[in-house]
Amino acid sequence: MRVLFTPVAATTTPLFHMVPLAWACRAAGHEVRFATPPELTGEIVAVGMPAVEVGHGYKIMDGVLRSRGGRRVIEAPADRWTDSGLVGSADEPATAPPADEHADLRNAAMVPLVEAATRMAPDLLRYTEHWRPDLVVTDSMVFAAPLVSALRGVPLVRQTWGPDVMRMISQPLQGRAADGDVRAQWPRGLPELYDHYGVEVRNDYPLRTVDPWPTSLQFPDLSGRLPMRFVPYNGTATVPEWTLDRPGRPRICVTWGTSTAALGGDEAFVLPRVVAALADLDVEVVLAVSHDDLAKLGPPPGNARVAANVPLHLFVETCDAIVHQGGSSSLLTAACHGLPQVMIPQTADNPFNAANFAASGASVTLDAAEAGTEEIGAAVTRVLTEHTYRAAAEKVHAEIAAMPSPAEIVRALEALV
């Protein structure tokens, strides 16, 4: 069969989550292609997959910053999320807004995704008119994918990459039917896009949802869920020789997402506090951060090893704990290896990831605005020395290992076609 993958192009995270399943499809003898905006072309080609460029001339991250009036702001912490969505903001009280204000918040947040769908739709439909896929696997944020499913008559499957945050927003990839007037619940401009192509406005286009998030932590009512074992993939690189050795003291991975820097801005840069907190501990620190972040950090402390842009999956199994911003790739990669975690979330879905994963008992979450070096150092010491964190991390590791492999999921996808 022909399988078309359409990850959202805001960051590389959704693409990297799809790579193991795409490889499994290829290994099973299926033809695979990825359709995304051009900014992901290099990463797609690097993993040996054909890239189809769609939605030229628009970058989602640029749209995110423009939708905020050019301001880089910190997202609300996880306790401001409700079953209805986000309430309040990082600098305002967490009081529930009136219905129309909630709609304004939703519409403002979804502007970049609706615009991306509008740009992608003509290219996707033109391409799939000639290269007829038998199945489309998409991200919950690629609102153009259901148009292909409806107009080309092919099954649609979505793939999540964390707690199902998008279930809070009525849209075509929510995965379950909505009550009431669906059109009024969709982000502004999206119903009109579907009208333009003569496609029905409804929430339940995906037949199944491929989900790597641990079952014990995911929402229990995730529609059509296909649990899939998370296989870490964080990019390509040469394996560093130092990964063969284990230091005589705990090794701590410190990593930070590129989108965190873009959304939070330099004024909210937490990484210097993290590095300073670990400088006086008897540990080896592996700084797996971007070159840009390293430049802002200045000279690393004496107990730090620089691993700029080295994919986590190449070395994290040699670590004893991890400190990061709460991104799902970092979180799940560490969880696959049973590492206790310290998270300092700031932006996007990271506070939600951290709050959800905290229920496992395998992590400590700190407030990015308030945590000082002493508190950060104490949190790292806790996860290294208190047995409960390691035991909880091992339990999550065992749960992930028991989930069906990508190869098994391919067989389930074949049955849909």
Protein architecture, described:
InterPro entries: EryCIII-like_C (IPR010610), EryCIII-like_N (IPR048284), Glycosyltransferase_28 (IPR050426), UDP_glucos_trans (IPR002213). One of its GO terms (molecular function) is UDP-glycosyltransferase activity. Residues 23-257 form the Erythromycin biosynthesis protein CIII-like N-terminal domain. 45% of the residues are buried. The protein has 2 domains: 2-229 and 404-416, Rossmann fold, CATH 3.40.50.2000; 241-401, Rossmann fold, CATH 3.40.50.2000. The strands form 3 sheets. The protein has a 7-stranded parallel β-sheet with strand order 3-2-1-6-7-8-9, with helices on both faces. A 6-stranded parallel β-sheet has the order 12-11-10-13-14-15, sandwiched between helices. Strands 4-5 form a two-stranded antiparallel sheet. It has 417 residues and is an alpha/beta fold. The chain has 15 helices and 15 strands. Helix 1 (13-27) packs across helix 15, helix 3 (60-67) packs antiparallel against helix 4 and helix 4 (99-130) packs across helix 5. Strand 4 (81-82) and strand 5 form a beta hairpin. Mean pLDDT is 88; it is low at 70-97. The protein has helices spanning 13-27, 41-46, 60-67, 99-130, 145-152, 182-185, 190-196, 258-264, 271-279, 291-297, 328-336, 350-357, 373-385, 387-401, 406-416, and strands at 2-6, 31-36, 51-53, 81-82, 85-86, 135-139, 156-159, 208-211, 225-227, 251-255, 284-288, 304-306, 321-324, 341-343, 363-365.
